[in-house]
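MODEL INPUT / OUTPUT PAIR
PAIR INDEX: 1
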Amino acid sequence: MTAESKNMSPEVKHMLSVLRSVIRGLGYNYQDVANKLGLSNGYMSRLFSGKIELKFQHIVDISRVLGFEVEEIFHLAYPRQKEPTSAAAQRYHMLTQIDAGTPVARFLAPRSTNENDELERRVASALRNLLTSPPPPPQPAVPSPEEMERAMERMLRKLLGQQG
């Protein structure tokens, strides 16, 4: 194991392993992929050994030359859908579990590049606000003593008014 690969996160190591498995599983080698990408075999070797930092664009490019959509590669890497565990992921999951016909769903629907830039800006702003401000306190389920007293008073007046 190289010094560079020791510094890689487990997620990067896992993604490189998935890409390596797909390349080999389809009967290709690094040279085949490098040729299709217009890169040198040495570059691919350094990338897969951790000497070059794996970037998202690498995953996209390698996926495409192998005939995969990038989401298919990520699905191979993470096949099970997990329940969100972090507070931020849980809140985001809750916010995005909506019917397709709602205004929020229409807002989240695919858009053009300019609309995507605006959408990204709005989502980033909303998430920043959501994640930096505490959630509002839950509303009490039990009425206050004053509300209970007023409700009882109304019921007694109604009851006594019906008898008299």
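PAIR INDEX: 2
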Amino acid sequence: MPKKNDTKKIKPAAVAKLSASKKVATKKAPAKKAPAKKAPAKKRSTPISSYQGRKSEKYMSAAMKKHFLAVLMDWREHLREEMQKTFDHLKNKGESYADPIDRASQEEEFAFELRTRDRERKLISKIAMSLEQIKQDDYGYCYACGIEIGVKRLEARPTATHCIDCKTLDEIKEKQLGG
């Protein structure tokens, strides 16, 4: 940058170019935001609200099963959409960089996404098991002791297979055995 004493030496045309380039820079900033917008994603239907049962309603009634069936199906569909987005991202961004640091960053990003999708793949299989349990009228009952898991627990974790007491005991045993 020129010193204060040097400002007298700058030609008016150069000052006009500097001010024009500043104006251009400020005009370009909003223009960069427009291309950054992605194509609008397919909007999911409104989230399913928690189940509001009636006082005299039997546990795992037809309405309750229908509710959890809808929750599980919606969750599975959402996970499948996310997996498809990841596959598309890996295909489109699969370019190799000349710089080893850039390449390492990209590989780390891909590895993270793949680990996340692997967990989601396992979750999809648990959702499929829960859907099968609904069909067999076994959904909502603990595998270990056979008592009701509870609507609140199923709302929090629709793939739950154990009641809160059995799950707590399993976690205590796991801590003791695992370290």
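PAIR 2 NOTE: Helices lie at 12-36, 62-92, 100-135, 151-156, 164-178.
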